[in-house]
């Protein structure tokens, strides 16, 4: 034990949060037509990741057109004025190492991984489909069929996907996050090619686009390249993006379902505040709480429910914070045999209301902070991750350099701030969305 | 570090240099220095995968190694590693057991490597912790049973390999086999793992070569010379092709077809087949993607894959479809590989060659991916420039080579698994 303590002290003394240096040199430029460019040089490997992020996603879709953003994502690989569909596929396969498109609640992004020498060629290609995409009915029908198959596969891929989608629908009963990104089946079946064309014309304009380039590139050169190709493309005024807020409600939403699963699952989701440019501290505190409360080995909730009271066999948590509206902090709990939902819920709420600074040792605080910082740095290893996070932040109207201050903010977070957050958000009165899944 | 600095080779990156040397006990050490991000990855790869053990034992041993050592219990291991934000992960496949430490470069590497060292080489497998680890593995197995890809792969391997073959069983084993393992089984297997030849230490990240030498010395000194090496069974004896149809509990529709070929991963025919795979279903300009998805609209996704499994290789085709279309897909694939017409064209060959070259060049886009590629090289007992060799060899592959390789694929040599029939 003595050896262990000596070891522990020597480790603590060697940790200095502020000495972790990241090369966060991001260059930002806005062209006259409103197009935004973000460039970050990373010369470790001869690769560049290029993301064209259009700031429109499923939360902006009107009723009866759910899934139109994702539908357009599929159609974007169709014919353009200059290239046929097969030319486009051939282009990507000949010139990139990897390409993909993703539609999220807030944006639709097209990412290509290329050798640095191919960056200008990708930019030219993206310009081509921004300015001259063609909408052919036969292509629309082919993609409609592929999307319906994709939806079916998602729903049936794991027994947990559909219940989680159901929880989301009920957690956001009136808001923009109510429907799945892929859309409701009936809408996918009925969206017309004119709906998709209209969506493209309305939102695929330079003033609704950010080009993000991370990798082995020269900042000046790629900015110059984007300027030459895109500055002449006219923008049109953007219509107001309507993002429906959830109506404020009292009490909990609860759904009980039965599915072909081996073990029951209880999901208890607490509503948390909406992010803004001043909320990095609360974002970090909530992330620290996922570790402090539900870490499998030492989490306060894990220990109490699993080890001390034998109420559960597994505890996990998930933070869904970066949204245009209030998100949720969720506990995923697999109960022990014959343990009723209310035994778990009551125990959880009682623990949250009684939590105190004494429950968090200095070492534990230091440890969860260090783990947060390490994860923050580890994520920077992937240039594709970097482009994704910049795209997400911009789509939410948050500063792209939001995480520059992580080290300083993290250093100053206290035990009191953490316990205050628990009491503020995880209590009996805060709105909760609850899902119980039981075996058939 | 007795035989130092055998070679220094420039890797594909202009910035990152790859250095290789031989440390104690003839352990190969590979080091790549990258400075931009304050991360260090250290991995030690043993030639001790699931093919050398009873079903699930290699994976169970690998995962349980971090449960505590003779000197520190599990909480102490966790405390020491996690207090620095570091992560230790174990990967076990058919051929290798790899322990991987990822940490920030501003913490004391000597201390953290010492901990890594202790966890790997002095694993104690405490019985109480093993019970929890068993539960974790059983949960993993249950999860995989809900994944169509995993279910199909499990059935494919069962049909490919005779029941006596270790490849017949999934890497994680079966619930009943996992339940029957005891501390002594794990200790015995682990001791044998540490004595395997061709162990490789890989270090990638923000540290100096002198530090890398110190770290690798600390790790390699613990390796034990042993004559008790694993016996490799001959794999290229397999069952006859068969078709399996499964109606899973979930509404899934997925197919996996595979054919085996006597191709080694270190010879030119392997690269020829990689290129053939690219033409058949490796990208969206490929024959299968264009014919079955774009033209026929029968699948939402389809791809082919070519992988080496020791003394033979496997070409597989997998995809997602509507159940009602499975018979038609089967007919089209049979027809395609019977007549082999229209699969290889000049245009498709050219695109596939460029596509494969790009994929190989861009295999390395992060420290983690660099580490993974070096592990693939170690797996093939190949030198540090495995990807370079693949690219150079690819340049010499002609359309005639690929056409000849295609002629050896026969429509009646496919093992088939259909889910959701």
What do we call the CATH topology of the largest domain in chain A? Cytochrome Bc1 Complex, Chain A, domain 1
Number of helices of chain A: 16
The N- and C-terminal alpha carbons of chain B lie at a distance of 58 Å
Reported for the largest beta sheet of chain B, the result is: 7 strands, mixed
**What amount of the residues of chain B lies in strands?**
15-25%
Instruction: Identify low-pLDDT runs of chain A.
Output: 1-23
What order do the SSEs of chain A take from the amino end to the carboxyl end, as H and E? Answer: HEEEHHEEHHHHHEHEEHHEEHHHHHE
CATH architecture of the largest domain in chain B: 2-Layer Sandwich
Count up the domains of chain B.
2
Total number of beta strands of chain B: 12
Mind telling me the CATH superfamily name of the largest domain in chain A?
Metalloenzyme, LuxS/M16 peptidase-like
- Cα distance spanning the termini of chain A: 49 Å
Oligomer: heterodimer
Order of adjacent strands in the largest pleated sheet of chain A: 1-2-6-3-5-4
Per CATH, the class of the largest domain in chain A reads Alpha Beta
Largest sheet of chain A: 6 strands, mixed
How many beta-strand elements of chain A?
Answer: 11
Estimate nothing, just give the exact number of structural domains of chain A. 2
